[in-house]
Amino acid sequence: MTERVVFDDLELGEIAIELDDQEPQEVIRWGLETFGERVAVVTSFQVDGMVVLDMAYRIRPDVRVITVDTGRLPAATYEFIEQVRAHYPEARFEVFFPDYRDVEQMVNAHGLNLFYKSVPLRLLCCHVRKVRPLLRALADLDAWFTGLRRDQWASRAAIRKVELDHDHNAIVKINPLADWTKEEVWEYVRAHNVPTNPLYEQGYTSIGCDPCTRPIRPGEDDRAGRWWWETNAPKECGIHCPIETGGFEHEVHAILGEGHNGHH
Predict the structure, then answer these.
(1) Is residue 215 part of a domain?
(2) Which range marks the domain in which residue 122 is found?
(3) Lower CB count within 10 Å: N or C terminus of the chain?
(4) 214 membership: H or E segment, kind and range
C-alpha cells in the first residue's frame, strides 16, 4: 500500500490559486503525478466526466475509473458504458453497487418508486443508491477527479479546481473543468471524438437514473430534467453538495439503522 498523500486547507489553497488559470490537462497531470494510484476519475459517464476521462487517459492510459451503478440507470447508459470500456481499453474500470440490504430495506419500507412521493424519500433513494456506494469507492482514495463546472448549477458556482473534500475524509477533490463552459466541453468532444451517451441526442442534458431523468424542453435549464416533479428542491443527489434536511438524516438512520453503518 502506497503512502497516503494528505494536504491541509492552506497548502491546497495555494495550489488551487496556482492551478486556477491552468488548462484542465495540466490540472489532471498535477493530480495524476501527485496521487499516483490513489486518484481516480469518478464519473457517471456524462459528457463532462467523459472529457475528464479522455484527458486523463491521454496522460496515463491505465488511469482508474470509478462509477456507481445505482441499479436504475437507463438501458442506453448501460450500453454506452460498454462502448466506453472498449474505447479506453487500458483504463481500469471499477463499478460500485449499492448494498443490497440497504436497497431491500428501503424498497420494502417505501416501495420501488419511492422518489416520486416526497423530496426526503427521493434524497433517501439517492443516498442509498449513489452516495453510500460512492463513500465506499472513495474510502481508499486520496483524491478524485470530477466533471463539475461552475456554470452547471448555483450550488456549484464557487467550486475551485482543487479543494479539500470535507464531506469525504478531507481527500482532495479535483475539478479540472471548473471554469469551462458547456460549449467548450462539446468542442473538446468533437475535436477528440470522445464517445458520448446517445441520450444527449434525444434532448437529455443531465443524465442520471432512468425514472428520475427526462429530456428538457426548449428554454429550460440544463438540470431541469432531473427530479422534474419536485418544486423548489435542490437539483443535487448529495454526492457533491451535502443537503441539509433534518428529516432526511433521521429517515436514513430510521431505515438503515445506525448499527448498519459498520460495513462501508
Answers:
(1) yes
(2) 9-257
(3) N
(4) none
Query: Which CATH number covers residue 139?
Result: 3.40.50.620
Q: Which amino acid is at 191?
A: A
Q: Is residue 186 one of the residues assigned to a domain?
A: yes
The domain total for the chain is 1
The verdict on whether 126 is a catalytic residue reads no
Q: Which three cell numbers stand for residue 79?
A: 450500453
Q: pLDDT tens per residue, the chain (264 residues)?
A: 567 888 999 999 999 999 999 999 999 999 999 999 999 999 999 999 999 999 999 999 999 999 999 999 999 999 999 999 999 999 999 999 999 999 999 999 999 999 999 888 998 999 999 999 999 999 999 999 999 998 876 767 788 999 998 888 889 999 999 999 999 999 999 999 999 999 999 999 889 999 999 998 888 887 788 888 887 666 665 555 554 444 445 555 555 554 344 443
- Cα separation, 3 vs 12, in Å, equals 18
Helices (H) and strands (E) in the chain, counts: 9, 6
Q: Could you write out the three-class secondary structure of 135-159?
A: HHHHCCCCEEECCCCCCCCHHHCCC
Total-model pTM: 0.87
- 190-193: Cβ within 8 A, 24+ apart: 192/54
Q: Considering the domain boundaries, does residue 264 fall inside one?
A: no
